[in-house]
Design brief:
Largest sheet: none
Number of helices: 2
Strand content: under 5%
Structural class: mainly alpha
Order of helices and strands: HH
């Protein structure tokens, strides 16, 4: 299981609370209504600030 740093935890907590109160907005300015999207926004912010967050999963190429 991946280990997340304290900064990541704080950012996710803040984003989820904002989403619950209807104050969190996505990059395009729309209101965020999904808890999963709020978590993703929090992790992305922590990543940008250099927090300990695992890299995003990348789509693998199709194998045939």
């Amino acid at each position: 299981m991946a280990q997340y740093g304290k900064k990541a935890s704080e950012k996710v907590h803040r984003a989820v609370k904002e989403e619950e109160h209807g104050q969190l907005k996505s990059g395009s300015g729309h209101k965020v209504t999904s808890r999963k999207q709020a978590i993703a926004i929090g992790l992305n912010e922590a990543r940008k600030e250099g927090g300990k967050v695992p890299a995003r999963p990348r789509a693998s190429s199709s194998k045939s």
